TrEMBL record:
This is D-galacturonate reductase-like. PROSITE patterns: ALDOKETO_REDUCTASE_1 (PS00798), ALDOKETO_REDUCTASE_2 (PS00062). It comes from Sesamum indicum (Oriental sesame). It comes from the Eukaryota. Gene3D superfamilies: NADP-dependent oxidoreductase domain (3.20.20.100). The keyword Plastid does not apply. The active site is at 40 (proton donor). InterPro entries: AKR (IPR020471), AKR4A/B (IPR044497), Aldo/ket_reductase_CS (IPR018170), NAD(P)_OxRdtase_dom_sf (IPR036812), NADP_OxRdtase_dom (IPR023210).
Length: 301
């Protein structure tokens, strides 16, 4: 998995042409890892961008790309997982994805078109049944790897206890103001790779805030190094040994976000970042609504 991936979840949601143009621009900038999900509505523009990149010779083969997509909670039912994966592949115009993740550890009994949702449609995830469906997707060759997203240590224990094929990845919010030390330690001990999402705190989105881009501590470190605050946040994540998915549809910022490899943070910088106040930014409750089961899941570490 390339260490930096381009996120494709945009707020407000971009139209197909805007998203496709941004993805093609990202390929020109050097991105080869793209993170999408059925729920983002970005599978189709990503599929169109890949087809065009092949047509114009921006890439020579689909194998040069690493594509991650996710099983939406409305399909988190054992019988629906293989069909949902096939539907995502159709949207992407691909024969396989590189990584297929369970998007979040809940099931919704209905398809939804807006959030928050009614409490009655939220159910606990059937971890065993759903994971077996994910394993089937891999066994059928629809995906090269399978994993999870937004899983706590407790949920990881559950899936690891029943998995024939263990999850390769847990994609979670991780950044200087939500460092996820306990979860990272746990996943490392069980051989599960972490991908950090919202590494910039998802500023200017409905689900994020400006705590990172407006952090005085990060700005001071950045100034001393001739870097930007965003680059310091991304470099910090990289130095923790995780992969990163970050979204920019802006030509300059998407390039800026790749410039994190030929310099390093000092021990002093890392200590300052270590002391930043910690608070989870992206909660399931902020998306699905403050229902009991959702609040319980949010409270798990
Ligand atoms: N698994 C999950 O449940 C989950 C949840 C959330 C996100 N994700 C994935 O992770 C990806 C990234 O997370 P995210 O989109 O939530 O947040 P993010 O990457 O932390 O932040 C994106 C925001 O930062 C802005 N930005 C990008 N580069 C910047 C820079 N150098 N300086 C200042 N602002 C900058 C972007 O605006 P511009 O586009 O205008 O640059 C956008 O508003 C998503 O797109 C999605 O693929 C997964």
């Amino acid at each position: 998995m390339p260490v930096i991936g381009m996120g494709t979840s945009s707020y407000p949601p971009a139209d197909i042409e805007t998203a496709k143009a941004a993805i093609l621009e990202a390929m020109r900038a050097g991105y080869r890892h793209f993170d999408t999900a059925f729920a983002y509505g970005s599978e189709k523009p990503l599929g169109e961008a890949i087809a065009e990149a092949l047509r114009v010779g921006l890439i020579q083969s689909r194998d040069e790309l690493f594509i991650t997509t996710k099983l939406w909670s409305s399909f988190a039912d054992p019988a629906q997982i293989v069909p949902a994966c096939r539907m995502s592949l159709q949207n992407l115009q691909l024969e396989y994805v590189d990584m297929y993740l369970i998007h979040q550890p809940v099931r919704l009994t209905e398809m939804i078109s807006r959030t928050p949702v009614a409490a009655e449609i939220i159910r606990p995830l059937d971890v065993k049944g759903v994971w077996e469906g994910m394993e089937e997707c891999k066994n059928l060759g629809l995906t090269k790897g399978i994993g999870v997203s937004n899983f706590s240590c407790k949920k990881m224990e559950e899936v690891l206890s029943i998995a024939k094929i263990p999850p390769a990845v847990n994609q979670v919010e991780m950044n200087p103001v939500w460092q996820q030390k306990q979860l990272r330690e746990f996943c490392k001990s069980r051989g599960v790779h972490i991908t950090a999402y919202s590494p910039l705190g998802a500023n200017n989105t409905k689900w994020g805030d400006n705590r990172i881009v407006e952090s005085d501590v990060l700005a001071e470190i950045a100034k001393a190094k001739g870097k930007t605050t965003a680059q310091v946040a991304l470099r910090w994540a990289y130095e923790q040994g995780v992969s990163i998915v970050t979204k920019s549809f802006n030509k300059q910022r998407m390039r800026e976000n790749l410039q994190i490899f030929d310099w390093a943070l000092s021990t002093d910088d890392l200590e300052k970042i270590d002391q930043l106040l910690q608070r989870k930014g992206v909660t399931l409750a902020s998306i699905l609504g403050p229902h009991d089961l959702v609040l319980e899941l949010d409270a798990e570490v």
